[in-house]
Amino acid sequence: MLQNIRKLQLTDVQRDGMRLAGRFNAQLMDYLRNYIRPGISTEEIDQLVFDYTQHHKHIPATLGYLGYTKSCCTSVNEIICHGIPGEYTLKEGDIVNVDVTSIVDGWHGDQSETFLIGHVGEEGRTVTQCAFDAMHRAIAALQPGCPVSVIGDNVVAEATARGFSVVREYVGHGLGRRFHQYPNIPHVPDRKSRQERLLPGMCFTVEPMINAGTRFTKLDTKDNWTVRTRDGRLSAQFEHTILMREDGPEILTQCINGPKRGHKF
Ligand code: MF3
Ligand code: CO
Ligand code: CO
């Protein structure tokens, strides 16, 4: 499909719209982190997302999106992404990715974090650390006009150095007025991502999914959403929304209380 690249280069006013969306989404994540501990069910996390967003008169972007019926995704242990909140109760030793997306005055903010529930085993901790470091390494490497593949190059380097694998079937994405738009942001470079460029004014996510074992995935045929590792081993993910500026990347979804680049889990 032919893309009008110039439309994706936001004006200063439009950038401020994205900043507000990212800031609200990060506030929501900071609110949630106080509750994410052993004994809470993923359904209760979803209810917190819905209530907080509604209270602030914004909209959970996933609600009704392509038939999805929840306000966030909660992906526990071997679930890679798109875990549907439900009866499952978090227990000591779990890792859980909570992915929230808000619509604020028509603009989208999208981010996720993997949380360690109490004391977590070595592999859960290291795969979470790897996903976090891979995301920040990729963001730090961004420069205006750089190829999209800079992201994949850095994610793959971080994962392979630690003996972990990178998911290919699910990717980052442009976002703005729409939740998912051009360009695709693969976390493993491909031919297209080596040609496409990240220009000033473009907004997109960086959201690597890192598996402890095989990179291969398995879609749950019962709900058609839940994506698991094919070998049942652990998977972790972090996500930020990024604005590319004339002078480099700006993270729009930085939490006040969340882990910062360099954090050790
Ligand atoms: N928030 C996810 C992303 O990072 C998308 C979730 S779509 C849903 O792109 F429908 F599964 F919620
Ligand atoms: Co996303
Ligand atoms: Co997301």
State the main characteristics:
Creatine Amidinohydrolase; 17 strands; binds 2-amino-4-trifluoromethylsulfanyl-butyric acid; 265 residues; 29% helix; binds cobalt (II) ion; 3-stranded antiparallel sheet; alpha+beta; globular; 4-stranded antiparallel sheet
- CATH names the topology as Creatine Amidinohydrolase
Q: Main beta sheet, described?
A: 4 strands, antiparallel
Name the shape in a single word: globular
* Strands, total number: 17
SSE pattern, N- to C-terminal? HHHEEEEEHEHEEEHEEEEEEEE
Provide the CATH superfamily: Creatinase/methionine aminopeptidase superfamily
- The second-level CATH architecture is Alpha-Beta Complex
> How far is the first residue's CA from the last residue's CA?
42 Å
Q: From the alpha-carbon coordinates, what is the Rg to the nearest angstrom?
A: 17 Å
Which CATH class is shown? Alpha Beta
Strand content: 25-35%
Percent helix: 25-40%
User: Which ligands are bound?
Assistant: 2-amino-4-trifluoromethylsulfanyl-butyric acid, cobalt (II) ion
Overview of this structure, please?
The chain is of the alpha+beta class and 265 residues long. It has a single domain (2-251), classed as Creatinase/methionine aminopeptidase superfamily (Creatine Amidinohydrolase, Alpha-Beta Complex). 29% of the residues lie in helices and 26% in strands. It contains six helices and 17 strands. It has helices at residues 5-8, 12-33, 42-55, 122-140, 149-161, 191-195; strands at residues 59-60, 73-76, 79-81, 95-104, 107-116, 146-147, 165-166, 172-174, 181-185, 197-198, 203-206, 209-211, 217-219, 227-229, 235-237, 240-245, 248-251. The strands form six sheets. Strands 1, 2, 4 and 5 form a four-stranded antiparallel sheet that branches. Strands 3-14-13 form a three-stranded antiparallel sheet, with no helix packed on it. Strand 4 (95-104) and strand 5 form a beta hairpin. Helix 4 (122-140) runs antiparallel to helix 5. The longest helix has 22 residues, at 12-33. The termini are far apart. The model has no long low-confidence stretch (mean pLDDT 98). Bound molecules: 2-amino-4-trifluoromethylsulfanyl-butyric acid (MF3) and cobalt (II) ion (2 copies). The site of one cobalt (II) ion (CO) has 5 residues, from loops. One cobalt (II) ion (CO) is lined by residues 110, 173, 205, 207, 239.
